[in-house]
Write a structure and sequence with these properties.
By secondary structure, the chain is an alpha/beta fold. Strands 12-25-26-27-23-24-13 form a seven-stranded mixed beta sheet, with no helix packed on it. The protein is elongated. The protein binds one RNA strand through helix 6, strand 6, helix 9, strand 11 and helix 13.
Amino acid sequence: MSTVVAELNGLPSSELEDRLAALGGPERTAARPSLPSTPEFADLPGASPGKVVLRLAPFPSGTLHIGHGRMLFINQLYRERYSGRILLVFDDTIGSEEKRVETEFFDLILGDCEAAGVHPDAVFYKSDRVPNFYPWAERVIAKGAAYVCRCPAELLRENRAHGVACPERAQNPGEAMDEWNKMLGNSYAVGEAVLRLKTDLQDPDPAFRDRVLFRLSDLDHPRVGTRYRVWPMLEFSWAVDDIELGITHVLRGKDLVMEDRMQRYIWDLLGIHGPSFVHWGILRVREAKVAKSKSYREIKSGEFDGWSDPRTWSLRSLDRRGITNDAVRAFILSFGMSLADVEVPAETLYAENRKRIDASTVRRAFVADPVRVEVDAWPEDLASVSLPNHPDRAELGTRVAPAGPVFHLARRDLEPRLGSEIRLKDLANIQLPAALPSAGGTLAARFTSRANQRIPRLQWVGAEGALPVDVLGIEGEHTPGLGEATLASARPGEVFQFERVGFVRVEKDWTGGSAPLRVVFGHP
RNA sequence: GCUCCCGUAGUCUAGUCCGGUCAAGGAUUCCGCGCCUUCGACGCGGUAACGUGGGUUCGAAUCCCGCCGGGAGCACCA
């Protein structure tokens, strides 16, 4: 028996299946069709084509970063599925001392949406709508479901944690209305009074107990100045606007789930049927550790190179790096609608982008930290050479690049090969001397042969016409180096692969002379 | 601490609603090989997972319960 087992185990599975079939066994198993690999986006509850209205609600205190992409692309996906509408509603209520509204972001954010292919059907500003919220507050007060609380913030918080009611909670609707009018009428200083919703102080979720609906603020709003002192909190403003703007579905991050409950509570109170809510978990790119507020400081101080500095991981910084919107969208949608929080390495995004650009991106030579190498006995006919633009795609053509006898090679490549023969990639072989020249000096090498040999192949840049190139890296660092002469005609926005370095995107035309060609590193 | 949510390979994800077709699919990482891009682009190949304990069932990644682990919320921010 064991010999039979041993024999059968040694056979390929196809042979086994043939034998089995011959014995009257089950038929060969067909090759298993591969399962779908893209996440499912479930249909929206109660959604019908042409009737879906969605909203994007960014707070204008920065440009959109990769985390906002999830909001952007998921909303867009459903808008496309249902031929729906998307409203861009700037959530520019007064914010706080730490979280200020700034005018410049309105256009910047709209630009981010457009660049992502999300063209809003209409744009609204919460700050224009403040007076709309007051009558709604009065409806809630009239229901006896709100009161003006005069506890200091700290006491309020503590009482909430312990389920303790403050004396004002006993206000009847008339008293509450009087107090509310005092709030509106400047009778209270900032921080002295708030309008609170009456929920249940024993609610199991401490976060839900008697939330604040309106508060006072003297901050100067960039659009409406100090016209209003009484500002709604996010939940209340949305309880109103989701109705007034006819929103059918609210798709947002799970950090806002408690706000759903608030909105529903208010709607139930008023006998209104509101939109449904859908959430997703937090998406973090491992490398994008920079907090939004942190990059804000650095941009304002000039330490960062504006809102598209690679360190911000803003959507516009990805574009600057030559990462296509298409790749960003596919990357983000690959996480589906999961409520689980995901932390994903940027490499996954890079792979997505590579898939799209590798086959059509031409190769160029660049060496960082170059050492000048002069080759003795260099053949005259190798003064220039025709090189393929892409190793695997002949249809991308060739370019003619200046070659010897003088080259630049990367110090890092040279150091471990001193004293040995190396091959200048796609060109010829040379013998390296045993030691590096002193700083700024020239390395004297000697031509050996042109036959392709299996020896280390090094990247080179012909000295003639070589131009200075500055590579802006992901950490904001600058890597100076030399690029091959053909780079002189590079156009802004053009993407190249610097061989063995990675994909880069050109910032501006080269101005000639010693000013470097500026490129931004995308990814390996 | 309280509330809610989530656990499939190193990472992300398909499958879970409606148990068998899943000896678990894809992507990425990693490893090996190939290549006139060296560790680095590209091509080929390989390793690698149902958190845990119980229950239901002929049969559980899928249903039920406990445990463990992780995250978010608990602002007069959004």
